């Protein structure tokens, strides 16, 4: 296994805004740790819980690939490109902020919380025309196998972004094992455990732990109990042009 960095769940930044409960794997907003600004082009990994009927008012982004993965409940999205939609568990949403977008995100339910992962990746092209997309995935396609949810290619499985990156989700039964082969030699791999306990090359990880690995061609991942996890393969150098 290559060089690795372990981010235990309890070491993450934390902010409670009343309506929003947010854990930050990397520096974000008022949480700053010079050792945890990014992992390669992976800039933000936020683990958010939004109270019923609450959300983020209209706010801007630019030159960032923004991926939202709902874990529980529903999230209503509106933006200045005319998109208005609701994303749910099983969906993946992507925005290429490019030259600049504004959007809002709200928990559309009055009686339950919404939980989600929001991920920011530096793009490889600056000032592109902003774009939005969302897809609904089959839960069965991640049961005891890796389901590709993101790639650099428009015609490939999942959503696509302006970056040489691939994301996979897995929902594994206890003792199921898989080998993940890196697709690009410039890339590192970051594994985030959504639930359960897994081992990555014998490094034990628990729920909400993250592990970044550089300089490795493959990893062996094993579910120590029923588990769900996200594998993010991203370039280690900022290649924006």
Task: Describe the secondary-structure layout.
Elements: E1 4-7, E2 13-16, E3 20-24, E4 42-50, E5 55-61, E6 65-72, E7 74-79, E8 84-88, E9 91-96, E10 101-106, E11 114-121, E12 131-136, E13 147-151, E14 159-160, E15 166-172, E16 177-181, E17 187-195, E18 198-200, E19 203-205, E20 210-213, E21 218-223, E22 227-235
Structure overview:
It is built from no helices and 22 strands. The mean pLDDT is 95. The chain is globular and about 45 Å long. The chain is mainly β and 241 residues long. It has strands spanning 4-7, 13-16, 20-24, 42-50, 55-61, 65-72, 74-79, 84-88, 91-96, 101-106, 114-121, 131-136, 147-151, 159-160, 166-172, 177-181, 187-195, 198-200, 203-205, 210-213, 218-223, 227-235. A hairpin with a 4-residue loop joins strand 7 (74-79) and strand 8. It is 0% helix and 53% strand. The strands form four sheets. Strands 1-20-17-22-15-13-14 form a seven-stranded mixed β-sheet, with no helix packed on it. The chain has a seven-stranded antiparallel β-sheet with strand order 2-3-4-11-6-9-12, with no helix packed on it. The protein has a four-stranded antiparallel β-sheet with strand order 5-10-7-8, with no helix packed on it. The protein has a single domain (4-123, 139-235), classed as Jelly Rolls (Sandwich).
């Amino acid at each position: 296994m290559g060089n690795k960095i372990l981010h235990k769940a309890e070491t993450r930044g934390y902010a409670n805004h009343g309506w929003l409960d947010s854990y930050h794997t990397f520096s974000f907003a008022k949480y700053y740790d010079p050792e945890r600004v990014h992992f390669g082009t992976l800039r933000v990994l936020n683990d958010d819980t939004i109270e019923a009927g609450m959300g983020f008012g209209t706010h801007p982004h630019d030159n960032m690939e923004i991926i939202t993965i709902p874990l529980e409940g529903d999230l209503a999205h509106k933006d200045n490109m005319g998109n208005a939609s609701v994303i749910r568990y099983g969906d993946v949403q992507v925005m290429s902020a490019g030259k600049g977008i504004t959007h809002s995100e709200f928990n559309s339910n009055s009686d339950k919380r919404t939980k989600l992962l929001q991920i920011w990746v530096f793009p490889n092209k600056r000032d592109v025309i902003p774009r939005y997309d969302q897809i609904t995935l089959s839960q069965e396609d991640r049961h005891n196998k890796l389901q590709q949810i993101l790639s650099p290619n428009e015609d490939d499985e999942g959503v696509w972004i302006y970056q040489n990156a691939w994301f996979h989700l897995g929902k594994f039964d206890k003792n199921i094992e898989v080998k993940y082969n890196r697709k690009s030699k410039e890339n590192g791999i970051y594994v985030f455990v959504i639930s359960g306990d897994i081992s990555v090359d014998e490094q034990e990880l628990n729920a909400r732990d993250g592990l970044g690995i550089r300089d490795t061609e493959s990893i062996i991942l094993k579910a120590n109990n029923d588990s769900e996890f996200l594998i993010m393969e991203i370039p280690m150098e900022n290649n924006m042009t």
